[in-house]
Each structure stands twice: as C-alpha cells, then as structure tokens.
Amino acid sequence: MIDGKLGVAIHGAGDVAHAHARSWKKNPQVQIVSISSRTRASAERLAQNVGLDCEIRDDYDQVLADPRVDIVNLSGPNDVHARQGIAAAQAGKHVLIEKPMALSMDENRALRDAVARAGVKSVVSFVLRWNPLFEIIKRQLAAGTIGEILHAEVDYWHGIGPGRRQFEWFRRRDAAGSAMLLAGCHAVDALRWFVADEVVELSAMGNNMKGHYEYDANVVVAMRFQGGAIAKASVLLDAVMPYTFNIDLAGTQGTIRENRLWAPASFPGQTGWAVVPTILPDSGDVHHHPFDAQINHFVECILAGRESHCNVADAFHTHELCLAIDESLRQGGQRVRLPL
After folding, report:
1. What angle separates helix 40-50 from helix 15-26, to the nearest 10 degrees?
2. Nearest one of 24, 30, 22 to 4, comparing CA atoms
C-alpha cells in the first residue's frame, strides 16, 4: 500500500482499459502506480488521455516485481488473460481480469486453482452485474415477486463487423476464442446470476453466413438448470441493428421483461406492465458500463477480506458453460452435459 492506499497496475491499454482507469482514478482508496502494455506508446496514450502521472512500462515482469502494486488490472487481448492472471496470483497480487478470463478448460482450471492457492482476491469483469436494472431484477427475485423461475432468456445482439477498430483480432479463433467467449458470455453469466443455479445440459446451434469470423458468429443455445428451469441464450455478432441485451424471466407468479414487471400476486388489480425507469444495459460502449460500481465493490472486498460474488471461482462456471456451448457446436448441436 502507498500512504494507506492500494496500489493498482493497469496492464493492457485498449479501449476498456480507459474505462477501467477512469473508475480506479475516482476511488479514494487506491492509487494507480503504473500503466503497461505491449508497447510503451499505447500505455503513454492511456496515461495522457486519462490524466495520470504514473510509471509507464512495457514489461509485465516489472509490473509484478513492483512492491507498490497490490492489484493488477488485466485488460489486454483475450488470449493472454489466463497466463497473466496466473502470474499475478503467483506474485501475490489481487487481480481484476477482463472477460473472457480463459479460452480453454485447461486455462480455466489453471487460473481458478492458482488464485485459490495464492489466497488473493479477484473479480472478473462481468460488469453488467452492477447495472442498475440487474440490481433491480435481483431484488425482485430475492423478494419472490415472480415466484420460481420456469424459463429464462438472455440475448447479446451486437453487430461487430469489419469496420470496428479491434475487428482483426476479434475475428480470430486463437485470439478471441468464440462468439460466446468474446461477447455472449455476458448473456450466459446473466442467466447464471438470475437463475442462481448451474446448467447441467445444453445443445447449441450456430451459423457464420457472412463469413467474417473464423468461428460461428451467431449462436443460440437451449439449456436446463439443475433445479429444473429451462433457458435460452444467444449471441449475434452479425446483427444489423442497435446493440440489444434482451432479458426475459418467466416465473410461477409473474414475469420480468427487461424493466417491465407483471406480478398480479404482488400488485392486485394490475392491468398493464409496471415499467421501472432505470439505466438499462442497452449500449455496447464500454464507458456506459458500471465500472465505477464494480471497482468500488472490489476495493471493498479486498479491504474487508471477503470474496466477490463475481470472483474467478464463480466465473469459472460461466466460462465452463461457454466452452460447453462451443463443444456442442463442434459436435453439430449434440447435447453436452456439465460439469465438463
């Protein structure tokens, strides 16, 4: 710590790192110690854009060797997350890691085990868990407003084509993983978060009709949870439409559709959907995401010595689910049972 503040090192200087840095900068209990990337130029650009006066590095080993660093913020390309996360844990650093945290089950297990052995705190950036609509839905579910969930649907539809700046690595299987790992993981994680259960079997189908990607760009999956709820998730990277994040939760006593609530058992005489004006997960812009709340939560977890609900151990199951979906796609839609 530095003068009673947790030292943060941001490693990876892309678009999302700018959002992370602005949120870290707002928290009075931390100090950004360094920014690093594969090139000094990108790290310097991030520091300049956010207005930071800190160490600039292009060597990750130097980041981990710095005794001022308590937390490592990993925001580089997908294919380096697991390796860098394992190294951070072994160095005794708490770790915030962008999704996806792993591109294979071997990486998924290795990262989970490394963090557990090191005893460090972690949070994986399924940042929508801190979106106000998500928080409202969780409260309604906890209160039993719609009863027990029978069926859940969450969809991530976001046209990400050749015109996007990061498209050249998004399109590659070795760098991005798959449509589910790149983007649809937000929908899969939301299903787990709302149903509060684990999937035991699934079957997926996909297509790649535009041919922009090295993997199926558009995927739909049917799932069954251990407690009996059925669910559907989809990701569309070829969508020609504004960014859309659909949420439908049908229960034994009511239904939630995004910010609309139908619950006549709780609202006698209800004649139409009750609409809650709130901030929706309706933008793919990283600066729209609630990183302030996520980072404040993580800092509180570290200082209080408690685990986050969105730590590596929990995110292991979201990534396992995404990888099971990819396995079903490889098998032509065959049923895959979990755990893998």
Report:
1. 40
2. 30
> Taking 90 as the threshold, does the pLDDT of residue 163 lie above it?
no
Separation of alpha carbons 2 and 206, rounded Å: 50
Q: What is the C-alpha to C-alpha distance for residues 29 and 299, in angstroms, rounded to an integer?
A: 8
Q: What's the half-sphere exposure (Cβ side, CA atoms, 13 Å) at 239? A: 19
CATH number of 129-284+319-337: 3.30.360.10
| Mean pLDDT, rounded, for 110-129 | 98
Q: Which residues pair with 255 in a beta bridge?
A: 250, 262
Domain extent listing, the chain: 6-126+291-309, 129-284+319-337
The string of DSSP letters for 153-188 reads EEEEE----TTSTTHHHHT-HHHH--HIIIIIHHHH
- Count of CB atoms within 10 A of residue 154's CB? 27
- % of the chain with per-residue pLDDT over 70: 100
Residue 190 CA to residue 4 CA, distance in Å, equals 35
> Mean pLDDT throughout 180-196?
98
